[in-house]
Amino acid sequence: MSIKEKVSAVVLNQAMNHISGDPEKNLPKLLNWVDAIGIKEFEPQSKVLHEVLDDPENNWNKYLMSLWRDIDNDTLKSIFRNLGLNTMLFGFPKQQENEKNYGCNIPLAMLIDPTSACNLKCTGCWAADYGNQLNMSYETLDSIITQGKELGTYFYLYSGGEPLVRKADIIKLCEKHQDCQFAAFTNGTLIDEAFADDMMRVKNFIPAISVEGFENDTDFRRGAGTFQKVVDAMALLKSKKMPFGISCCYTSKNVDVIGSEEYFDQMVEWGAKFCWFFTYMPIGKDAVPELMASAEQREFMYNQVRKFRDTKPIFTLDFWNDGEYAEGCIAGGRRYIHINANGDMEPCAFIHYSDSSIHEKTILEALQSPLFMAYHDNQPFNENYLRVCPLLDNPDALVDMVETSGAYSTDLQNPEDVHDLTAKCRDKAEKWAVTADNLWACSGHCASCKSQK
């Protein structure tokens, strides 16, 4: 750790201690102190923060205050240090420098599957196609994180399979890499008292618990009794002041529930501090294309998420409909990469093609491989940032990248030809294009609007 990083960590720790006593009073005072210093680069952020902190009725003011009220203070310090300082303040500039040095994308985050095993078999989930025999060794997982930190990446998420099948190794990695923030997409059914206590001890792990709506919708996709186990897990974490979020996959069957005000209110009541929304993708032999959201349903989610951001104290992201904030697709190392339990390094967790294995290449070598460079060279895949996905929105782009790079299907049991995969998405892509172009134009992003600015 450099001197600058050590000093910043000390300052952050002192600031957090000062805030925690009375955040409603001390957060605005701290911002005024920063303003008095006169950091020109911080002026735009300061203006936004004043709009939030100077108005107790502002939704984001309520959200920020809830963090200090509901989350263990030392855990909150760890989150701010690892995400705020290490990932953004120090890590992001290092990533940008490495992108220039190596001529490729460098990811902000890495999504890793420690295992293909899962204790559930959810309808439409591709994970079951991998079977339960694939497991990355602790040494391989540790090497991935070590390599990532050298590139400037300090944020690691686990998926699977069910990542908490590997609880012990996940906690061990949290212990070793205290400068990193860890999270996991989990079905939540393996979260028990002992694991919650481990979370309290390491303080740098946050679960994103998969919930498909209320009881009927969740149990329909994940199995009878799953919903109650998940609710019990969230209640346990809330009682221990441990942070958690929710991961929602919206489908043609549950979108009205997922996007309802009742459901947003319920997530807040459960104690979730964030929700990441995903739309159903028809991946693998057990895919159910009928579960794909229609253009009308996707537009419904676009409007609902934006509406409730102003009124509900929960941080939300829709990884398809929020492409405008990332200025395009985040896959291919532009913001993240995926490494499955077999060691295949994939540009995206939802698109199972690769040309590199962690057992044969370094992460940097993979990022410079033909498939990842195809992503690098072709992003953004569409000038309309509501149509950013190379599969769901621009299927020809995916076909071209897979074929020109010579990438292989990573589905070990039933390899899927890219033409067969994209065929499932073409009708939805064409219909969404009409809706998305109208939304994009109405939000002032079309060529005509830009020319008038």
Number of domains: 2
Label the structural class: alpha/beta
The residue-averaged pLDDT reads 91
> What is the 3D form?
globular
The quaternary structure here is single chain
Q: How many beta-strand elements? A: 11
Read across the widest sheet, the strand sequence of neighbours is 7-6-5-4-3-2-1-8-9
CATH superfamily of the largest domain: Aldolase class I
Q: What's the CATH topology label of the largest domain?
A: TIM Barrel
Strand fraction equals: 5-15%
The separation of the N and C termini measures 45 Å
Main sheet? 9 strands, mixed
Poorly predicted regions: none
CATH class (first level) name of the largest domain = Alpha Beta
Number of helices: 20
Helix share, percent: 40-55%
Describe the structure.
With 453 residues, the chain is of the alpha/beta class. The chain folds into two domains: 3-70, no CATH class; 82-444, TIM Barrel (Alpha-Beta Barrel). It has helices spanning 3-21, 23-37, 43-53, 59-70, 73-102, 138-151, 167-176, 193-202, 215-222, 226-239, 255-258, 261-270, 295-309, 323-326, 363-367, 370-378, 395-405, 418-423, 426-442, 447-452; strands at 109-112, 155-158, 181-186, 205-210, 245-250, 274-279, 315-318, 336-339, 345-346, 353-354, 408-409. The strands form two sheets. It has a nine-stranded mixed β-sheet with strand order 7-6-5-4-3-2-1-8-9. A hairpin with a 5-residue loop joins strand 8 (336-339) and strand 9 (345-346).
